[in-house]
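Example 3.2
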Amino acid sequence: MRKVVLSSAATLFLAGCAAKLPPVEVTRFHVSETIAAGTVATRPLGDIDGSTIEFRTYDIAVKRELSRLGYAEGPNPAFSAEIGYSREARERLAKASPVTIGIGGGSFGRHTGIGLGTSFGIGGDNSRKTIISRLEVRLKRNADGAVVWEGRAQTEAPSNAPSAQPGLAADKLSRALFEGFPGESGKTILVP
């Protein structure tokens, strides 16, 4: 019985942790409901430096999802997947005041007592940062340069949350972006 209770408690704890991950806002556009898989090469979108560790992190996450969908790297690729990403920090104010005051009293026969207590928040400031992470992918047909599919994904998390780290954000954004590929064109959805 004790093992069952501990196992249930651990499951509830982990479910509570998983529930705190922020959803991903995803918007996709494409020319048709079916896009035939083929060979693909990835490259940076716009002026993004393709030699950075951060680009490689997003590149690996996108390649993993494309591979899951049947796209493979190879010579003379039929498609190019252009990858863009960004991260920005936004200040947000703390919700609760760092100061609390409590007053209490009591009477026990002939003895009466009264108490007063205060508490102050120590350390840090009253604001925290939220990290906004974005991923954009454009799938181009190399034969004519036409964009056949493009998608954007965005999520935000407190700066001290694990999901705000670039590696975890890249995985989460790419999974959400390609979920149900190609997706409904022109519709913004939330992916948990």
